[in-house]
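Hey, can you fold this?
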Amino acid sequence: MSGPRSAPRALIWANLALLILFPLAWAAPLVEAGLIPFLDGETISILSGVAALWADEPLLAGLVGLFGVAMPYAKTLALAGVHFGRLSSRWLPALEVLGKLSMADVFLVALAVIVAKGVGWGRVETAWGLPLFAGCVLASLAISLATGRARR
């Protein structure tokens, strides 16, 4: 196992920044719904979406929580472990797969927005949290890929 100097400092700092940015993205508004009877005027975040789903769809809430919250954060922590020599580089391929699976949440939100707009009920607008969350997931994936290249 090698120490933190085997990965460029920029990758290490970018990964550590995700430990702050991910929780912000989970609480940030993803979509704003207007004129939809059950969502009129509501702003929906990942955390509020999981909480709302929990009562009626606990399995779906668990999947969103797993892919949108737990996996990206665990991946970020594990990558920090690789950067600081606490985990072997052999973890990198698994971390890259976790990063790709985390994109599932971004696609689900985008699909929900498209469906809601297509139904023609009211208005659904994406908010600043969606690009923030998507950017965090993409940055995490890029950091793990770049770390793998730096280790070779």
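Oh, and this one too while you're at it.
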Amino acid sequence: MQTLQLSRIQDSERKNCMLEVVSDKYCRAILEIIKSQPKSAIEITNETKIPISTVYRRIQMLHDNKLLVTSGMISEDGKRLFMYKSKIQGMKCNFNEGNVEVELILNN
């Protein structure tokens, strides 16, 4: 049985950033597709039909918010290839009596 690892966010500014990320349909699509295995920006574009420039902008946004892991390698023809994997499986948000609670479900 798999145990969920949760990370509760306390900082108000970080909570707002997480809510902004999850409200963006492109960020959600990217996180969903890189949840189980790493993918390159080209693979993300091909599988989601999101324009490559938008993929790179959202990857930067996700990276800035520490929601993905980046790994890289150099291909046989000398090109750098970066792979991206989500650090989270999901997010739980609760709004109650004016308070917002945000928990990240971490990716193993």
